[in-house]
Each structure stands twice: as C-alpha cells, then as structure tokens.
Amino acid sequence: MTGFLEFLGRFSAFCVRSFFDSCAAITQWRELARQFSRQLLGAAPLAIVAGLALGIVVWMHFRGVLVRFGGPSAVQLLPSYLALAVVVELGPIGAGLIVAGRAGAALGAELGAMTVSEQVDALSVLGRPIGRTLVGPRVLACVLILPLVTILIDYLALTSSFLAESMTSGTGWLSFRTAAIRELQLNDVIPHTLKTLVFGFITGCAGCYHGLRASGGSDAVGTAATRGVVTATLGVLLADVLLVRLFQLVLPG
C-alpha cells in the first residue's frame, strides 16, 4: 500500500510538471510536429480497423435486440441508437485505449532506451531541460491526436454500420444519416469528444514517466513499455468514469 501511495504521489507530481512542459512545447513546433505525425500515423491503422469492426459488431447487437423486443418496426430507431452509443462512449473510450496501448508502449520503450543508454543524462549535462525537451512535445502530441482518432473511429463505425444495414434492409444514406443525427445534441458530441484530451494527457504522462524511470539493462526497456501501457490504460478507464459522472452532474439533459 505504501508503494502504491508513493507511486501515486510521484506520478501526480510528474503530471503537474508535464502540464507546464506541454504548454511550453508549443514553441518547439518542429519536434511537436514530428511527434504528432509519429503518434497519429502509429495509431491510425488500429483506429481504422477498430472503427470498422466496432460499427458492424454494435449494429449486429442493437439490431437483434430491437427486432426481438420491438418488432421489425423498431429497426427505424437503429441509426439513432448507434450514433448515441458510438459518439458518446464507444468511440472516445476505444480511441483512448488504442492510443494508451500504442503510445504508452512506444513512449515507455523510447525514453526507457534513452535513459538506459545514458542519453538523458547527457542532455542534462548539456543543460537541456528534460521536461521541455523530451516530455512536453510527446505529451502534447498525445493530447492533440486523441480527438482526431476519436472522430475517425466515430465516422468509420457509423459508416460500416450503415453499409451493414443497407445490405440488409436497403436503407439509403440520407435516411440513415438523418435518423442518426436526429437525437444527437451538442451536449452529447462536444464534451465526450473533448474528454479524450484528458485521455491523451494521461497516456503521454504514463509513457514518459515510466520511460524516464527505467534503470538496469535491456530488460528495463520492456518493463518501462509494459508499465506505460498498464498505467495509461488504467488511467484512461478511471478518467472516463469520473468524466462521464461529471458531465451528468454539470450538463443539462
């Protein structure tokens, strides 16, 4: 228990420092652009596959339930239910977990290798601030890509569910789109998409924290990557629970 509390305190302090480092990273636009494209291109293939699969799987479940309990006429509600489920929860948490797994491991391994090979110490000797040089751009890149990955998953999930429904019942795109956005409100779309900014911040901090604390030989790199994924995943899930409850208390409807 003492070890967990110590980790929680150290990680919380690291997150506070990383917040200011990521704000300062805006001026390092070259490194920020490099990290942004690297993380986005790394997460995009997983997001594409996840979005297409998610839309089809959710469509199969929802359509079966609606037909079972509401009869064939209840299928007309399917686009609205799909849009709400994907945009409000499945898309954001799916994007958060994908980036937590991909970026958490990548950042942990990259910075872990730099720490073990004493490159981080060399930067310190040269007077380069580690937080602003290594942590800030990586954390900010994770923050910026999460909403984009979320929108990509949402779009592909709704597209694949439309294609599945179109092949089953012949529904047209215009009627499907109209029914899908009928029940969506800005209070549903904007907060639940922007909450992924928090997911990105947690993921970036988790990967960088464990990477910079790696010690020992080559095994430390793998350990840092594993711990980065675990911490980022747990942090994303916990943040999702807290943010959803916060939105329910603050936002109307």
Summary, kept brief:
The protein is mainly α and 253 residues long. Helix content is 87%, strand content 0%.
Write the layout of secondary structure elements.
Elements: H1 2-24, H2 29-70, H3 78-116, H4 119-125, H5 130-169, H6 173-182, H7 186-194, H8 196-212, H9 219-250
Helix pairs in contact: 1-5, 1-8, 2-3, 2-5, 3-5, 3-6, 3-7, 3-8, 3-9, 5-8, 8-9
Structure description:
This protein is an all-alpha fold. The chain has one domain. Helix content is 87%, strand content 0%. It has nine helices and no strands. Helix 1 packs across helix 5 (130-169). The chain is elongated. The mean pLDDT is 88.
What's the gyration radius in Å? 21 Å
Question: Approximately what portion of the residues adopt beta-strand conformation?
Answer: under 5%
Q: Could you estimate the helical fraction of the residues in percent?
A: over 70%
Total separate domains:
1
Poorly predicted ranges: none
How many strand segments?
A: 0
Average of pLDDT: 88
The coarse overall form would be: elongated
Q: Helix/strand/pairing class, anyone?
A: mainly alpha
Alpha-carbon distance between the two ends = 40 Å
SSE topology string: HHHHHHHHH
Structure annotation, total helices? 9
For the sheet with most strands, the description reads:
none
Key descriptive features of the protein:
about 85% helix; mainly alpha; elongated; single chain; 9 helices; about 250 residues; about 0% strand
